[in-house]
Amino acid sequence: MSRPRRSTAPLGSPILGTVDESPRVRRVRVQVLLTASLLLANIIGALLVGALLMVVIPGPDVFTRRFLTVNAVIGPIYIALSLVVGTLWGTVMAVRDLRWAIEGHTPSRREATAALAMPWRLTRVQLVLWSGGLVLFTVAYGLINPETIPKVFFTIAMGGITVCAFSYLLSEFSLRPAAARALEAGDPRRFRVAGVTGRGLLAWVLGTGVPVSGLMLVAIFSLARGDVDATQVNISILAIGGVTLLCGFALTLLGLGATVAPIRSVRSAMSRIERGDLDASVVVYDGTELGELQSGFNRMAEGLREREHIQELFGRHVGREVAEAAIARNPELGGEERHIAVFFIDLVGSTRLAATRPPSEVVELLNRFFSVVVDEVDRHGGLINKFEGDAALAVFGAPADTVDPEGSALGAARRIRDRLVDEVPDCSAAIGVAAGVAVAGNIGARNRFEYTVIGDPVNEAARLCEIAKSIPGALVASERAVAAATADAGEWTLGESVVLRGRAEPTRLAVPVSAR
Description:
- The protein has 516 residues and is α+β, with helices and mostly antiparallel strands.
- Helices cover 62% and strands 13% of the residues.
- It is rod-shaped and about 125 Å long.
- 39% of the residues are buried.
């Protein structure tokens, strides 16, 4: 069975690479993406806090000389340290705990679970740092002017929540290669950390919950102070609305991307399956229910490949048509009368060949001989019903209907005779062709049976094959077969009549017009 093929962007995005890239490339890719993700999340949070403090949230202006120490010394130092510490802390922790994925080792269950939980762990790092900043700046501004406490507290809290949300979604995206390696270690149901519902709630909290809460707090601050200008309130509402549109759109886009990417990978692979490419598979990189979907698709595809493989092997043993019929419906003992044409082919002098040649040479010769026979039978729509040592029985018209079974059998027999002369000159074979009504079906016991044909045409073909061994060209057909043929009938000429062994009535023979 061939190795399953995957899409050109198996992890949902070209910038994430592939699961089989080198460990060095994977390490650099993960470090760069993770560092950039954490920096981007914190920069977004810092810009959001600055904008809210400056023009949005009602309250005392904190950008005056009175707050110079906080704004010019404490703030920049803590922000710089947070960016450096948070980024390095998160990156180092991820690279250390995901070393097995970067170096290509198989993870333990604990390591696999830790890898899927890594986005939450990185988010907790940001939560710790922003919580520290919340306490520090609220206290620092509050000591100078207590009226700034609500404004500073809400602003930094809103920024911290936004940073945590972006950190989670961006780091989850960046760590897909590690998640894929972790999920290769077992069923994703064993390692689920968060579900699609949790991801959706996160997008709702950041896209709706926090902004609406902000608008409500603006209204509360305005009512509490009493002296807030209506213009300032309008500006605050417009600014928070704008932030909601931008951040909400970005978070929704990231959340939808994380949800849709696994579905798209499965859809793409399903399209390939529908086109007959059973080697299609997807990389399982999502730790939610969507990962179960990806894993389930791979199990389905594997089942289809196994079924195809079994059907192929089954078809080689009993014939493709018989195999397809057995798979399509439950086979039962018994048969049905069918109008068929058959030919029996037997290697001439096989006893002498077996006595004068090594067994390996005899087997090689038989394989070349039967390759020609099977190829022409398949080409003419027939079925090799059975191999009997150095002989074979070919059937036309069962189990699948054939428009002209006699013409197909006669044409296949002539082609086999001609090709054996050219392709297997070190052996000769006799062929007898007959046609008529026979019983075709499953013969045997209930727990072990085979598809076969039984009836006068089969017996007649075997007797004609014996006669063919003693006439030039070694190919004989019955008059009935030639007379019923639509195609190829003109290539045969009638000859003498003989009484075949076991039959009372004479059978008129027919041979090809041109014998090679």
